[in-house]
Amino acid sequence: MKKQQKQVSPETQAEAMAIAKxxxxxxQSKEQTKLIAQGIQKGIEQYKKQQKSKRRDADKHxxxxxxxxxxxxxxxxxxxxQLLPQTSSDAATNPRLPWILLLLSWAGFALYLALVP
Length: 117
What we know:
mainly alpha; 4 helices
């Protein structure tokens, strides 16, 4: 398999050539200037790679901190929910209770009607 060479952007090439020409010495040949420009171009590409890697690492670190904060907030919320007293009614925990109360109230009403003349 052939290795594909990365195409260098024209802006980078132009920037490297401009820097090489600005540092050109009297009597320096065009080939020497071209070689210097290629070296500068490689340096620029390497710098861009390093900056991209640093940004990627910083982004990973930022996302990791966000996940950790979210986990801590979730854990704190769960802890605060467990500390609060349970406010659920007995009817929610025992589904028979409403029926028992209904039957007792009917029995009480029937007893009242039987005793009152």
